[in-house]
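Exercise: predict the structure of this protein bound to 4'-deoxy-4'-aminopyridoxal-5'-phosphate.
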Amino acid sequence: MERNYNFCAGPSTLPESVLKQAQAELLNWQGLGASVMEVSHRSKEFEAVVRNCENKMRSLLNIPENYKVLFLQGGGFGQFTMIPMNILGNKTQIDAIETGVWSGKALKAMAHHANINLVASTKETKFTTLPDLNALNFSKDSAFVHYCDNETINGVEFRAPLTECETPVVADMSSNILSRAFDVSKFGLIYAGAQKNIGPSGVTLVIVREDLLGQADPKTSDVFNYEVQAKNMSMINTPPTFSLYMIDLVLTWLQGQGGVEAIEKINAEKAAMLYGLIDDSDFYHNPVAIDARSRMNIPFTIANPELDPIFLAKAKEQGLINLEGHRSVGGMRASIYNAMPLEGVRALCEFMSDFEKQYG
Ligand code: PMP
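Solution:
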């Protein structure tokens, strides 16, 4: 069976060459006569995997020396709680920016730990616009400001990071990390669930500035304690070994593509192609303000929603899968992360043009 073009929002498509390599070495990894899933996480072979993941991440994102790179469990969702547990310190307030479903869930979870100072919300525009980050007023009393750089469900993405802020900036980059270049040194903490641009699910990347460590709530378990995990190569307990192995392969693949700057150009081209088709048509519609549009997650609707199931079924027949929108918003959504090739987006655009000719 041929592989489909998979537009799932996450877990999402992985580079085919990575899957083939994993397949080839599944039964006998590194001559050990066992798969990577069956050996100790304390073996020298596996420790090298974790070191490779960190080193490759550091070089791909230009991560400065004074940041720790952690590979934790609990997903992006787990960070909504782990972040205040670790870096609230003696403060009792968090600045929050609400731009969609995920930043909304984050502030709700963080509200169990601190008062939320809602600095901006785009709820009134149904999360189809973004505030100007650098024009907002932040509170000096807050431990940090939290925002989501790319809202996976709503399809909005900030063009540039928040830089004019005295309190540490904490960003959820679950669905756009490694898709474009940015300056890590502007952030206090960056986190991302792996299952979009990093690898399979099961791992959460946390990049945290060292000076924010050492103030965890004393009741915090070592498993959730950034400082303890940093001192233990993120292996205070058994990590998701297969996922980490896959991440190592994905990062090697990304380096082979020319790194983040090179993939950023392809990502821009893919997004321009799909938005171009949607904007040139009266049949398809994307509700997001042009300057707030995500290059990773592109939601769209059809003029007549009764056509949605037909669209999805016909797309599937053409090998274009997982295009249904999130259950909370309906319509369609194409997630076009790093591992979605340009040809996949071209195939989707051709299908959408043909569908419009037939049903429009
Ligand atoms: N933040 C964003 C932006 C997400 O897209 C997601 C999941 N899709 C999450 C957080 C939650 O991540 P997880 O499912 O890994 O807990």
